[in-house]
Amino acid sequence: MKVSHLTKRENEIMEIFWRSNKPLSSNDICLEAPHISKNTVQAVIRKLLSMNFIEIAGLGYNKNALTREFSPCISQAEYFDNFLVRDTSFELAANFIQHATSLEVLNQMEDLIKERKAELESK
């Protein structure tokens, strides 16, 4: 999937989606970012839908009205990975490992590496 760079507003709204653990309506976004007008939020949501960054996750209620709720189709890590050179990705991972302070996190990374190696070996 070809990923486009996000504008400042698009990125700001995507950050809200990425931080949320549930689908959000345009009203939810307005509550999280009251400095952005409702019209701007709705325009950005339409643009993010057309770019396949978010999808309609269902319907919710806002006071007495039905409203569409949206969730991200791409994670923040996937988004940023599209703009990194492979060498940079390796350097970031190596730096993260060298400075990790949690044995649990390192064990999780080790498990991910083992899973990926098994996938590649089975091909």
From TrEMBL:
One GO term in the molecular function aspect is: DNA binding
Name of the protein described by the UniProt record: Transcriptional regulator
Keywords of the record, alphabetical order, are: DNA-binding, Transcription, Transcription regulation
Lineage: superkingdom: Bacteria
Q: Where is the signal peptide?
A: none
Q: Which family does it belong to?
A: Belongs to the BlaI transcriptional regulatory family.
Q: Which terms does the UniProt entry file under GO BP?
A: negative regulation of DNA-templated transcription
Write down the InterPro entries for this protein, in alphabetical order. Answer: BlaI_family (IPR005650), WH-like_DNA-bd_sf (IPR036388), WH_DNA-bd_sf (IPR036390)
Q: Which Pfam family, any one, appears in the UniProt record?
A: Penicillinase_R
